[in-house]
Amino acid sequence: MPTIPVRRLGAAGIVTDMNPADLEDPSVFTAGVNVRFRNGRVSRGPIPRTVHTLDFEPGHALAIPPSSGGYDEVVMVAADFSAVKRLNGDTLEDLTPAGQEAASEGTPITSCFLGGVSYINRDTHAPIYKAPGDSAYQTLPAWPDGYRCKVLRSYKDQLIALGVTKAGAYYPTMVKWSDLSSFGAPPGSWDPTSTTNSAGENIVNEMQHTIVDGLALRNSFIIYCTNSVWQMDYVGGDFIYQFTKLFDESGVISPNCVVQVGGQHFVFDRNDIYVHDGVQPRSIADAKVREFVFDALDTARSYLCFVSHDARLSEIRFCYPSSDRLVGWHNPTTGCNRAAVFNYANGTWTFYDLPNVTGACRSALISGNSWETDQEVLWDDAQGLFLSSEGDESQHMLFAGRSDASMGLSAARLYGFDLITGGSLPQSIEPEAVKPAFVERTGLDLDNLGKNLTQYTHLQAIWPQLSIENPSDAYWQFGANDLVNTEPTWSDEMSFDPRSEAKIDINEAGKYLAYRFGVRGTGDFQLSGFDVQLVIRGRR
Question: What's the pTM value of the predicted model, to 2 decimals?
Fold first, then answer.
């Protein structure tokens, strides 16, 4: 009757793609959601908190750095491009350009920042900008009349337009760049025929695939097509830029699906998730979560996909609409319900439920009001102007989410994603946006103990190493199966209170064992390991 210790649970995170019986390490999980792994422990993932309830349906979110106004500006754009609004403390301020008209949804919105100026673009409209001190966005002044572009990005001192439409003709491999811009003002020209500025354009004839997006990487600008990746480098002279193919058979699934971290690009592609430093792509999802992600991804709505980077938690979140078996919100049509989350500090994967989100940004939540700027406001009349977050300059992960009655989301919101333990956002947890957390391991054959597949294992007891905020919200389940490709037969849910109990008695037997630990509600927990008592029986 051996007692087997299992420690450092989740050190390898979640691996969904391999057959569970082929995973020798018992600390690997085969499924899980709304959990994260850190220091050999499993804990609750970030919880959505309502930062502000919105009066429009957002399609994009961006943060303007303090250099343009003295404090961070959180800006959200309507999904139909009909409105642009800024959150200032508890107030939504309208920044919509005069005469802005709505357009049908279905194409991504992109944004960038250059020289103190914020830019927003959608291929249904001319690009818009807001300089420091402007009260609203305006149409880009020197942008050619009638031109449109799929994506607008910044590189060095210029703006880069990708996938350009002019005179009604769409050029999927055209790259167009502006003249040099000075601080606080948009570029003065986009005219490629002028001999007195640096504006230009190039239809890259060698490109065989449509340009999807681009992003700077160190001293170069990387252009992502549907099935190839190119490098754009400044060479000066008459040509100004040189275009070189980096690699084939890789690209990007949609705009807003590349982030730079530590001199590398992490890329959400059409059938893989990879990282590169400008030389060679390397999959970080293959043999781990790749099949789980792409088998369930709604490709008809791939334009909703985006990637966000949470530097505080060392997490890159690949957000997409999914129909996987674990989703908390089903049948998304206007936003993302799933994030595949890669922790680049320890190399683990996990998954989060997302409340129909359409974009994310990282920003401090300091309002424009302060004791210095509002010296005449009395304490009794402040009415919440001075929150507990006043002076908090740390960066928070913010997600814009749409309403959907069928998903139980009654309002569009700006959510703050923050940990329960160690978090710093003072806003209340949003009950409509919280889903249960759980981890699961199936297919434990114990061959590392010398057991073979003709033998049965009788699972008798477990001693968890667990701390939990609300024990009444937690449950354990245990199961077993005899055939390698069948679902375990699960026990009823069992409660466990580590404040008064040390052991859970079990009575499960089979060739393959399984267990599941879950937490409903919003309580945090820390699960680091367990000892398990079992008996290996004779052959059958």
Answer: 0.93
* Element spanning 388, H or E: none
| Contacts of 237 by beta carbon, 8 Å cutoff, 6+ apart | none
Residue 313 phi, psi dihedral angles, 5° rounding: -100, 5
Q: What is the 3-state secondary structure (H, E, C) of 195-256?
A: CCCCCEEEECCCCCCCEEEEEEECCEEEEEECCEEEEEEEEECCCEEEEEEEEECCCCCCCC
Paired tokens of 412:
């569009």
**How far apart, in Å, do the first and last CA atoms of the chain sit?**
19
Judge whether 17 and 539 are in contact, CB under 8 Å.
no
Nearest to 83 by CA among 95, 66, 71: 95
Distance separating alpha carbons of residues 420 and 413, to the nearest angstrom = 20
Q: Residue 245 contacts by C-beta under 8 Å, 6 or more apart in sequence?
A: 206, 228, 229, 230, 231
Q: How far is CA 281 from CA 131, 173, 208, 264, in A?
A: 37, 22, 19, 10
d(CA 304, CA 257): 10
Cβ–Cβ contacts within 10 Å for residue 451, how many? Answer: 16
237 token code pair: 């002279």
Torsion of CA 418, 419, 422, 423, to 10 degrees: 20
Q: Are 145 and 168 in contact (CB under 8 A)?
A: no
pLDDT digit string, tens, across residues 113-136: 999 999 999 999 999 999 998 999
Q: What is the pLDDT of residues 322-381, one digit of tens each?
A: 999 999 999 999 999 999 999 999 999 999 999 999 999 999 886 444 444 444 434 443
How far apart CA 59 and CA 336 sit, in angstroms, is 11
- The residue type found at 280 is Q
Cβ-based neighbours of 28, under 8 Å, separated by 6 or more: 12, 13, 14, 15, 441
HSE-CB at 464 with a 13 A cutoff on CA atoms is 27
Map tokens 């004779």 to a residue.
538
Is the CB of residue 478 less than 8 Å from the CB of residue 450? no
Taking residues 50-64, what's their average pLDDT? 97
What residues form DSSP beta bridges with 275?
266, 282
Q: Is the dihedral of CA 55, 56, 61, 67 positive or negative?
A: negative
Write down all domains in the chain, each with its CATH number in brackets: 3-34+436-539 (2.60.120), 47-433 (2.130.10.10)
Residue 167 Ramachandran class (φ > 0 left, ψ -120 to 50 alpha, else beta) = left
Residue 7 neighbours by CB distance under 10 Å: 13
